[in-house]
Design goal:
Blueprint: H1 6-30, H2 33-58, H3 66-84, H4 91-123, H5 127-146, E1 151-152, H6 156-163, E2 165-166, E3 169-170, H7 171-189, H8 191-201, H9 203-208, H10 213-239, E4 241-242, H11 250-260, H12 272-291, H13 296-330
Helix pairs in contact: 1-12, 2-7, 2-10, 2-11, 2-12, 3-4, 3-5, 3-10, 4-5, 4-10, 6-10, 7-8, 8-10, 11-12, 11-13
């Protein structure tokens, strides 16, 4: 039983350790209400992208286009909000425009997810190449729509999604918690979740078990697109603007988080709790780096180094476990 939760326990210890180090060395600046509000407001948009990447990786694939989907769907919502919402409108009309913008962003994210799934399943393009291509395609469409300019000036009621609170809890964090619980339930309590894990572990065995691999893949990439679309709504409502290229640095850190969180890059295994703890660990580190005024280039170096280090450690552990299993079999 302990072995089953070993990675989760190790991650929890690392998370507590990182928090303790930050408190010890940066207590005056780290232990502030403003800093924790900043951390809790940045976790959701990045965390949703990490969950999306986790789902794709659990099938044995990857989705490099999640940030571009966020950009495109954010542009779609921003255009609707600025073109149709005006100061002369009543409160009810403004709310309807906001709902329309959110629904349009969700619809666009599902279309993007379907395109990825279609290319992978029915055209036969490997996931890494398919999503690499759509990453450029979706971002290019966003640039064409905006002509490279930013879109600003959203209704105040829309901004409440990204900057409002219920009590002391930021609304983005509440949205993230709800989405996290839904993804966790989908993976652990539904046939689709079991199918995703079986497909990632062994596609041939999954097919012989009666699983429609093609359907599972398309549904998975629809889910990744949807999560990216929700992330875009949080992102643009928090900063009150949208420009193609927002969140470009999230791709590397999203991959780092899911690998750090124990997701198998080859597919078949991953836990939502591990990914969430990975997000928290990186956000704590990010907060510490900002307080220490580290340059963006140095932070990129740290993220890249951490990604390589975690992958090497996971490879060594996997090799050790495989050798131990062979020795036990021979005995």
């Amino acid at each position: 039983m302990l072995g089953k939760y070993a990675k989760t326990i190790v991650l929890f210890i690392i998370m507590v350790g990182v928090f303790a180090v930050m408190v010890i060395f940066l207590q005056d600046k780290f232990l502030t209400v403003t800093n924790f509000q900043s951390i809790s407001s940045q976790i959701p948009e990045f965390g949703l992208l990490a969950l999306a990447m986790m789902l794709a990786m659990m099938t044995g694939g990857i989705d490099l286009s999640v940030v571009s989907i966020t950009n495109l769907t954010g542009v779609v919502a921003a255009i609707i909000l600025t073109k149709f919402a005006g100061p002369q409108m009543g409160e009810g009309q403004i709310i309807l425009i906001i709902i329309l913008a959110i629904l349009a962003a969700v619809a666009a994210s599902l279309v993007c997810g379907f395109i990825n799934g279609f290319l992978i399943v029915y055209v036969g393009v490997p996931p890494i190449l398919a999503t690499l291509g759509t990453m450029g395609l979706f971002l290019g469409i966003a640039v064409v729509i905006t002509e490279g300019h930013g879109v600003t000036g959203f209704p105040d009621k829309f901004l409440y999604i990204g900057s409002g609170t219920i009590g002391v809890i930021p609304i983005p964090l509440i949205i993230f918690i709800i989405c996290t619980l839904i993804v966790a339930l989908a993976l652990n309590k539904t046939s689709l979740g079991l199918s995703i894990q079986m497909l990632g572990s062994n596609p041939v065995a999954a097919r012989f078990a009666g699983i429609n691999n093609n359907s599972v893949l398309v549904k998975t990439y629809l889910m990744t697109g949807l999560l990216a679309g929700i992330s875009s709504i949080i992102m643009i409502s928090r900063v009150n603007s949208m420009r193609p290229g927002y969140g470009y640095a999230y791709l590397l850190t999203a991959i780092l988080v899911i690998v750090l969180g124990g997701v198998n890059p080859s597919g078949g295994f991953g836990t939502v709790s591990g990914v969430v703890m990975g997000v928290i660990i990186l956000q704590l580190l990010q907060s510490g780096f900002n307080i220490l005024a580290f340059s963006p280039f140095f932070k990129k170096f740290i993220w890249g180094f951490m990604l390589l280090l975690v992958m090497v450690i996971n490879f060594i552990i996997a090799g050790y476990q495989q050798r131990s299993g062979k020795l036990k079999t021979r005995a």
